């Protein structure tokens, strides 16, 4: 019996799939929007055809998936900067949800860099430094007691698309992965909420969140890396803890002036008697938190003495309901939510607006009327409390308690400094196109074109929103 020398045995080379399917590009390996690939090659085909022809191979830096698909589709995959996931997260691991809005209404970078802009002319200079909204209590550089702000970061959305692009989302995932201390790998996934082709709103879920002993949730919301990401990509990021209460709200309260309506009512009244400038200046300082709200309200109301009491009827034709307010209220009512308007304005117009939008509760300030002359006395009715910051927070809690609603199932939306307490008390507090100080201090803020954007924060996608407002 002859023995065979093992060294003389020629074995076929085993195909290595990793050489065929991986690339040298992180972005190619983790295409968030790639559709399923119609790839039919199998192990059996490779082994069976190995002797006849060399196995199919891709270029070292190629990807079997088209790196730039024409349509964006939900991937359903977990994204990570790693090629493998060694540790499976235990059931019940907390999750965070980031809703990323591309800002289409007010571009952060209206001027391209002269070196890269096709419209740049010889001699063009960089625009002067500006204070980004929400980064300081005031936008006036002269009032900031520090050095002028650094130049704006490079406007990457101009290079990669005016929407939440693949590279934008990849950059966000890299930032999220780098934040925890001590380091832990994260599992992340995403959904495009408005449309799959060039989405404006994308929801990213990641787990586990950073250890609160090292980075609290409040600090994470204000983290410098996320703030810079927002500036670079012209987006806004709203972070929430994932839970059943995030998706199922039962009470939503709104500020009225500059939130549900685009006007400041007391300024509109002031126009009738020619004191608009004086009242507007006080209103602006009060909304920025520079003045005590109750004291400033009494001061402004005193300037309205002698105004005919029917001024509120005349104002109804002047007031402009904010874009998306009707649709938002209609959708929330169809979901079974209770709605309330808590206003530092005045009761007659708050009740009128509640009737227009189908709102259940209306609380505002009551102006005293002289029964003889039917004019405003310049005083507030003393038997009614002033609707200031503390009273708004108290009303939020009392309305929730009266309806058996857990505070985690409440939403508050406002724009002024007198809204901050209720924004922090609610399960979700949203500063809507707010004053600079409010954007800086509020739990979350969005500056879109329509109040319908609030529905995306509840995890609703565009198809569901359209069904609710139909």
From TrEMBL:
Record-listed E.C. numbers: 3.1.3.3
Entries under InterPro entries matching the protein: HAD-like_SerB, HAD-like_sf, HAD_sf, PSP
Top EC group: hydrolase
Named cofactor requirement(s): Mg(2+)
Keywords: Amino-acid biosynthesis, Hydrolase, Magnesium, Metal-binding, Serine biosynthesis
Pfam families: Hydrolase
Disordered, as annotated region: 108-152
Keyword flag Metal-binding: yes
Pathway entry: Amino-acid biosynthesis; L-serine biosynthesis; L-serine from 3-phospho-D-glycerate: step 3/3
Family: Belongs to the HAD-like hydrolase superfamily. SerB family.
Protein name: phosphoserine phosphatase
Biological source species: Aspergillus lucknowensis
Lineage: Eukaryota, Fungi, Dikarya, Ascomycota, Pezizomycotina
């Amino acid at each position: 019996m002859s023995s065979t020398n093992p060294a003389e045995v020629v074995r076929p080379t085993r195909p290595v799939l990793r050489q065929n399917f991986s690339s040298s590009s992180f972005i190619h390996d983790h295409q968030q929007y790639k559709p399923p690939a119609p790839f039919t090659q199998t192990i059996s085909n490779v082994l069976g055809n190995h002797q006849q022809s060399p196995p199919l191979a891709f270029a070292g830096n190629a990807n079997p998936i088209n790196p730039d698909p024409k349509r964006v589709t939900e991937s359903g995959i977990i994204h990570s900067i790693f090629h493998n996931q060694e540790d499976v997260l235990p059931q019940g691991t907390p999750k965070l949800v980031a809703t990323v809005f591309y800002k289409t209404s007010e571009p952060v970078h209206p001027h391209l860099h002269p070196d890269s802009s096709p419209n740049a002319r010889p001699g063009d200079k960089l625009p002067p430094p500006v204070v980004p909204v929400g980064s300081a209590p005031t936008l006036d550089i002269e009032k900031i007691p520090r050095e002028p702000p650094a130049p704006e970061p490079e406007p990457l959305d101009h290079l990669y698309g005016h929407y939440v692009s693949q590279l934008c989302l990849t950059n966000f995932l890299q930032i999220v992965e780098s934040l925890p201390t001590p380091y832990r790998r994260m599992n992340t996934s995403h959904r495009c909420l408005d449309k799959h082709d060039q989405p404006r709103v994308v929801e990213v879920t990641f787990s586990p969140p950073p250890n609160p002993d090292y980075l609290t949730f409040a600090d994470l919301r204000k983290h410098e890396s996320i703030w810079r990401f927002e500036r670079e990509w012209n987006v806004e990021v709203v972070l929430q803890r994932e839970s059943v209460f995030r998706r199922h709200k039962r009470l939503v309260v709104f500020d009225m002036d500059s939130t549900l309506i685009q006007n400041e009512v007391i300024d509109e009244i002031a126009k009738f008697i020619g004191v608009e400038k004086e009242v507007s200046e006080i209103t602006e300082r009060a909304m920025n938190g520079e003045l005590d709200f109750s004291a400033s309200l009494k001061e402004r109301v005193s300037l309205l003495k002698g105004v005919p009491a029917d001024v509120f009827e005349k104002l109804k034709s002047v007031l402009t309901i904010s874009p998306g307010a009707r649709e938002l209220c209609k959708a929330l009512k169809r979901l079974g939510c209770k709605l309330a308007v808590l206003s530092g304005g005045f009761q007659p117009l708050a009740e009128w607006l509640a009737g227009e939008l189908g709102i259940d509760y209306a609380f505002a300030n009551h102006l005293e009327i002289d029964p003889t002359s039917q004019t405003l006395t310049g005083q507030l009715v003393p038997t009614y409390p002033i609707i200031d910051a503390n009273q708004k927070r108290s009303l939020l809690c009392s309305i929730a308690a009266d309806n058996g609603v857990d505070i985690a199932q409440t939403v508050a939306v406002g724009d002024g400094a007198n809204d901050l307490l209720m924004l922090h008390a609610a399960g979700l507090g949203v500063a809507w196109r707010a004053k600079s100080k409010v954007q800086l201090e509020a739990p979350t803020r969005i500056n879109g074109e329509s109040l319908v954007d609030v529905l995306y924060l509840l995890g609703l996608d565009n198809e569901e929103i359209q069904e609710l407002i139909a």
